[in-house]
What we know:
It contains 14 helices and 13 strands.
Amino acid sequence: xxxxxxxxxxxxxxxxxxxxxxxxxxxxxxxxxxxxxxxxxxxxxxxxxxxxxxxxxxxxxxxxxxxxxxxxxxxxxxxxxxxxxxxxxxxxxxxxxxxxxxxxxxxxxxxxxxxxxxxxxxxxxxxxxxxxxxxxxxxxxxxxxxxxxxxxxxxxxxxxxxxxxxxxxxxxxxxxxxxxxxxxxxxxxxxxxxxxxxxxxxxxxxxxxxxxxxxxxxxxxxxxxxxxxxxxxxxxxxxxxxxxxxxxxxxxxxxxxxxxxxxxxxxxxxxxxxxxxxxxxxxxxxxxxxxxxxxxxxxxxxxxxxxxxxxxxxxxxxxxxxxxxxxxxxxxxxxxxxxxxxxxxxxxxxxxxxxxxxxxxxxxxxxxxxxxxxxxxxxxxxxxxxxxxxxxxxxxxxxxxxxxxxxxxxxxxxxxxxxxxxxxxxxxxxxxxx
Length: 434
């Protein structure tokens, strides 16, 4: 499911009632590199065998034949038997995909790091497992599937998938243990950790680049060999698949800002589980910036905020600051109405435009205020051969206000996180006892 994609697609969508909205699935199809040749929609309860009604499936087959499309993408979740049955009604060689197969394909194209590639592979295997089981069931009934809906039956495939899932889980756990250790090292070194969260295309990567200290963009690369080196700013879904970390431009604080994969609505459990470790950088943060696209309809923002909070509150203990992004696209009166309508989910949000850099100074101030408070310390160090290395360490890990040198001692006054103060006192004790 990886690599560049070309081809034409007919989009299909069924809803229980109302008018089917194909905007998101069309955007996903284009993000995967396909050309949309047409669409077929239906409002009715799901047909257990075909998802769509039989007459609508016949219409879909005609549309595929007329447009010369080679793929049908359903915005609905398809069971393995539905894919099997649909393949029998469509022109020979037509590939049948659902939104989750498509998302996996996009993820595969975007995956650059080893962790991201493993997560894509894990999600693909979890998706394939029930289909392998379905192929085994069909084979036992002598209905050997040989089309692009399910593929040929391989008796050993089911066990192979389970073994690969186990191997990938072990490797991902090793990577996450290493990343967790790095985060603890950064925190112990005085860094505050801020994470960007929110839905795909909310503008998180653009905001990250606007907030990053340009002078230090590459400073942390040696600390993050497993992370993607840039947070690109493009109007595409899933531009950021892994995590990207940069130093944030805030006076008197050492802050690291991490961008993560965007949320997307209606993801199945197996896909969320595969990418769960990517969100650990959010769960381990001192502050979460929840970014929303303020130009979207208020009900859509409300739904995304509610889902985001459900996801974050599962394991997150850090405070959440809601950021209304893209306010350059929203009139002031409309923005005020949205603030009022969403106040229960987003109390006191900060309004910014990452693109035009409006509101960024206020955002930095709010981040500074929301992060854990620093404590003041006055450290008295005996004058020894190692004293200057301790003074240098304090400069690296704290905000030093004054250093006074005497004949027999050095006094350092600074502000720092409690953990750094604790470490500095231990270093002072070692000097005194040396």
